[in-house]
Write a structure and sequence with these properties.
Number of helices: 5
Mean pLDDT: 89
Largest sheet: none
Order of helices and strands: HHHHH
Helix content: over 70%
Distance between the termini: 62 Å
Structural class: mainly alpha
């Protein structure tokens, strides 16, 4: 009988997805701020780690740093943010906040890992 009772709340993947997208839309500006903060922290911690004797694990970043210096890494990352901004305008408005989230997650993780490595050194 409870299956027929429409007063019982049930969660579907679609309902959950809509709620997540609504939440992301409400904090999209903050996600972009987090992306830029994580980018800057990542570049700073990368430079600090390199000075402390660590090696850059990302081969693209390593090439840029060795060839052009740490500024090239920052420029590359800002170019990625710029490209993400373009992609954000091309995807449906409802999914647009997932773009900064997709950048923020790996960069925040990289910052945490780099900070942990530096604190342990």
């Amino acid at each position: 009988m409870w299956l027929l009772d429409r007063t019982v709340r049930h969660w579907t993947t679609e309902t959950w997805g809509r709620r997540v997208l609504d939440l992301l839309a409400s904090v999209e500006r903050e996600l972009w701020i987090l992306v830029v903060a994580a980018l800057l922290a990542d570049v700073y911690l990368t430079q600090t780690g390199l000075r402390a004797g660590f090696d850059e694990g990302n081969p693209v970043a390593r090439y840029l740093i060795q060839t052009f210096g740490i500024g090239a890494l920052a420029a590359f990352k800002f170019a990625v943010v710029g490209l993400a901004g373009v992609v954000r305008e091309l995807v449906p408005e409802r999914q647009a906040p997932t773009i900064p989230l997709g950048l923020a997650i790996p960069w925040v993780l990289a910052v945490c890992i780099n900070a942990a490595l530096l604190l342990g050194a």
